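Quick entry between incubations.
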Amino acid sequence: MRRFTESDLENFGTRCFASTGMPLTDACVVSRALVSANLRGIDTHGVARIPAYLKRIRAGLINPRPEIRSSSPMPFSTIVDGDNAMGPVAASIAVEACMRAADTLGIGAATVRRSNHFGAASVYTVPATARGCVAIAMSPGAPSLAPHGSRAALFGTNPFALAVPAGRYSPWSLDMAASVAARGHIRRAAQEGRAIPEGWALDNEGAPTTNPEAALRGLMLPFAGAKGSGIAFMVDILAGVLAGSGFAGEVRDWNVDFTGPADVGHFFLVMKIEAFMPLGQFESRMETAIGRLKALPPAEGVEEVTYPGERSGSTESERRRIGIPLGNEVLRPLAELAAELGIASPSPTL
Amino acid sequence: MRRFTESDLENFGTRCFASTGMPLTDACVVSRALVSANLRGIDTHGVARIPAYLKRIRAGLINPRPEIRSSSPMPFSTIVDGDNAMGPVAASIAVEACMRAADTLGIGAATVRRSNHFGAASVYTVPATARGCVAIAMSPGAPSLAPHGSRAALFGTNPFALAVPAGRYSPWSLDMAASVAARGHIRRAAQEGRAIPEGWALDNEGAPTTNPEAALRGLMLPFAGAKGSGIAFMVDILAGVLAGSGFAGEVRDWNVDFTGPADVGHFFLVMKIEAFMPLGQFESRMETAIGRLKALPPAEGVEEVTYPGERSGSTESERRRIGIPLGNEVLRPLAELAAELGIASPSPTL
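Done. Structure below.
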């Protein structure tokens, strides 16, 4: 493992994406979304994905120079047509529209159609907390999850994320996949040749498996049966059916399906805390809630009770200070890419 | 099991609640909320609860003649101070305010403070679908759930509900407790002397138990560890911290704690589909999504793949037609109550 500064990785990613003809500002938005995920420890959604994203852009399946159009049927609502842009580019426009609506009306919501994988959902929710807002983000993935009671894939692992400000604590941030485990963890286990725990997945014949390769070819299981399945369907409805983008099996797997655009949708909602309570009062109550949680006696084998987003928050502080650690399995493909593009590889800080 | 018509049970419940001095319209709202739960098969939240609610009103811990005040800090937002009203009374005022805001602005949200247990969460979300809306409802319960990583209760089983219109299908409706199982199921198992499955609960020393009585005195476990725990905390934040009502352990158990008002909060959000897409188009896309789900091959031992709310929807159609079945364990206390109040017991249809 070597460590890299946030700005070095951001610059590297920006150069990579700009090499496809993407405007520099868009390349920077995409690169920032990936590095933000790394900063918070969500390394499955970080710079490791640059080569695969580039491959898809180069295959003509993501539009590096989209003409993104927005409309606003009602003052609070925004519809973004991504024109097959990189996910973070279309998503950022939608989140900004929500923020503007929240600034004037107290609330804003946006759907995005014809977009692509937007990375880690919490990348879009956590920043809103600094502006005194609750933020929600969701986006359906390619079919990989067997709905409760079935043995065939229909939904993606469909992340649902919600964040709120937490006063002197780092933002409270829930970011969960509807599967028992995030697909990125299985992909990473496959890259590293590790087995996955039982109960995470079925092979393509519907039998339980601990082989990550078989799991990636097979089916993910929803968490808690009907509950995870219901959350996956909810995400499919708001960020697929309502968004006017792919739903119920239509989203293409950006990583392996090169037959057409992925047609990914997103849904965002941003709401001002002050629409209900002075922000200072809310934050002080959040501090009380978190303080009570952290004071609970830990379960056996647990060192400390933590709140959602706490570990990501402290990882972010640490990585801003001492850099983002990347292993050879991530660095090697990035170095190959750098050589190919004639740009400098990221330089480790130690 | 004998069957009763919806209107007979509603009238009976209304008379019971009116006996406490509650205005007839409020008594009717409460009774309807309970019967609506019965209609949808959520019998744990139905008329079986009348005696316990009456007991709490009579103990002076719920206000039968509240002065409920609403304010609207922003056009979309409503804050309801329930003045310790019955939950359905304060909740209905908040939902109606959300609906009015949605009619004019496309979206409305409301918090409720100083309320009481509001019954089944989907009672407040499903009706909004008939008005072309997505609706969200949540409300924290008394501490009974051990947050992930801890061995002490802090949150309730904190239901989260979301419903959307589904065209020719009955409404799509997710209504889930953050615990592995709803507390009402454990209470019912206790009433019926049945054991509960392992993994649902811990006894009050933190050991796994299948004894429902021990579970009720002990701790509920969140579904899927950190995920269910995160959903419970989310409900506690929006419908407790933000609502200005009890949070993080402060809500009193309406069933057993007679030391003061329960201080329950609620959060509602209602959003017009038409803010993003013509309703007809949305409904036709929902029909496609549900059709695809129902066409999936069922898992072994499963007869039919169903969508969230489907079983409740068909139970509702059936029960409207042939009546609501109630067993002796529910009827006996209702008959005792009827005798005491000098009113007629519900009359079975067969």
